[in-house]
Design a protein that fits this description.
By secondary structure, this protein is of the alpha+beta class. It contains 3 helices and 4 strands; from the N terminus they run H-H-E-E-E-E-H. It has a 4-stranded antiparallel β-sheet with strand order 1-2-3-4. Strand 2 and strand 3 (about 50-60) form a beta hairpin.
Length: about 90
Amino acid sequence: MSRDPRIDAYIARQQTFARPILEWIRESVHAALPEVEEGIRWGMPSFSWKGRPLAHMAGFKAHATLGFWRGGEISSRPLRPKRRWASSGA
């Protein structure tokens, strides 16, 4: 799939430490899902798969992040359920 030049520009504007991280995330997503589509959503680089949002990445002042919307749909193994925390009774 083609690369969105807006994501190139987004990565170029990020902190020096974040650029290689964001490039690595981008390359990894494309390697894992060659048919993934990329674009800018909510002001950050986002990836869509089968026409639906899949993941997004962003750079910040002191960290970079990757988030998934539908990660469970691409996993070959079941994901662990969310842990339920016990109430403190207060």
